[in-house]
Design a protein that fits this description.
The protein is mainly alpha-helical. 61% of the residues lie in helices and 2% in strands. The chain contains 15 helices and 2 strands. Strands 1-2 form a two-stranded antiparallel sheet. Helix 1 (2-20) packs parallel to helix 4 (80-103), helix 8 (183-211) packs antiparallel against helix 9 (216-230) and helix 9 (216-230) packs across helix 10 (239-263). The longest helix is centred in the last third of the chain and has 32 residues, at 309-340. It is globular. The chain starts with a helix and ends with a strand.
């Protein structure tokens, strides 16, 4: 909630203006619409048919949630203070320029015909790559190896409820990006439904083939992978092509998880790099092949309609988004990772929880929710750190340190 609120406030203060006001060389906008000034009197932005303020509020949620997607990869092991710094800095440095390049009609990628209907490049590719980088920087959660990368789920009904809410809300993102109620919104709804259904079935089938059973989490991952992957193409291709693309999306997402987590042992806790990143890349590239301008006058025809050059445009957009997000994520968080090699106290105090703190949980250690869960009713001062040496041998709770006794 704090991250969401901070990014929503930044969007109001100057984010919307930097993304959607008149461009400065195709790189970034200005401050003309800061504090949503002039939007009410403006009416509609160029080429749109809804009030500018309505558009700003709609885009606010895209902006607010994008860096928060990355938290899925770093779950259970990053300190709260660094988390706030990271999502705010990433929002300003990564999201605003990238959104301007693709979604402002005068952005430099938009001028090169890069298409992204509702966020496959701007949101899912960038957040997916950043998630992979952060997972590498933070390292494994405690007991990652003993769980073989998959911690036993604690509340499957709650996860299913969340996935259902996501599926419902995704219609708002994809169909809402049509900015009108009509044929284009209907195409987006149809593509979103088909892709998520196909993603669910394909992921379930692959899970059965690999693990000899279909888990509830596999079904949920498949549904979300279909939603994320079709997002960039949902307003540019027909449902028939969406069905085919969704197969590649699900296969790519499933084997992304299998390779990254189970073969390379990268601890992306909620598989954001695969379920959002790889799928978003596949959906973005699919536009180059199957885009149909007759569906959306703001689009371009793809390779099957005689314009293979759109494939190159989409490749460029994906590559730029991946590189921009990856490099800046490394710059924002990489220096603290270097301190890990020296077992420097700043690393443990600022960046990552110790194993003992992970065992207690972030709610307990960082937020003072000592009695929030059954079984954690003891006073934290009675808990001793389990690891030895340096700062990692002590437990910091409420600015007090508990040292391991011999």
């Amino acid at each position: 909630m704090v991250g969401l609120s901070a990014n929503a406030l930044l969007w109001y203060l100057f984010g919307f203006s930097l993304v959607y006001s008149e461009t400065n060389g195709g790189i970034i906008g200005g401050f003309k619409y800061s504090f949503y000034l002039n939007l009410h009197e403006l009416g509609c932005l160029d080429g749109q048919t809804i009030p500018a303020l309505t558009f700003a509020i709609f885009q606010c949620m895209f902006a607010a949630i994008t860096p928060l997607l990355i938290t899925g990869s770093i779950a259970e092991r990053m300190r709260f203070g660094f988390f706030i710094y990271f999502v705010v800095a990433w929002e300003i440095i990564v999201y605003y320029p990238l959104a301007h390049w693709v979604w402002n009609k005068d952005g430099w990628l938009a001028k090169l015909n890069v298409l992204d209907f509702a966020g496959g490049i701007v949101i899912h590719t960038s957040a997916g790559v950043a998630s992979l980088v952060m997972a590498l920087l933070l390292g494994h959660r405690a007991n990652f190896a003993s769980h073989k990368g998959e911690v036993t789920p604690s509340n499957i009904p709650l996860a299913a409820t969340g996935a259902a809410l996501l599926w419902m809300g995704w219609y708002g993102f994809n169909a809402g990006s049509a900015l009108s109620s009509g044929g284009l919104a209907t195409i987006a709804v149809a593509n979103t439904t088909v892709a998520s259904a196909v993603g669910t079935i394909v992921w379930a089938g692959l899970s059965a083939a690999h693990y000899r059973h279909v888990s509830a989490l596999a079904v949920l991952n498949g549904a979300i992978a279909g939603l994320a992957g079709i997002t960039p193409a949902s307003g540019f291709i027909t449902p028939s092509w969406a069905c085919l693309v969704a197969v590649f999306i699900a296969v790519g997402g499933f084997y992304g998880v299998y390779i990254l987590k189970h073969k390379l042992h990268i601890d992306d806790a909620l598989d954001v790099s695969s379920v959002h990143g790889i799928t978003g890349i596949i959906g973005s590239l699919a536009i180059g092949f199957f885009s149909d301008k007759s569906l959306n006058p703001n689009g371009h025809d793809g390779a099957i309609h005689g314009h293979p050059e759109l494939i190159a445009s989409q490749l460029l957009g994906v590559a730029v988004a991946a590189a921009w997000a990856g490099v800046w994520t490394l710059i924002l968080a990489g220096p603290l990772r270097i301190l890990r090699h020296f077992d420097h106290p700043i690393y443990w105090k600022t960046f990552k929880l110790s194993k003992a703190e992970e065992d207690l949980g972030l709610d307990h250690v960082e937020h003072g929710a000592v009695r929030a869960y059954h079984g954690l009713e003891h006073d934290p001062m009675d808990v001793y750190a389990e690891s030895a040496g340096g700062y990692d041998s002590r437990l910091q709770i409420n600015n007090r340190h508990v040292y391991k006794t011999e």
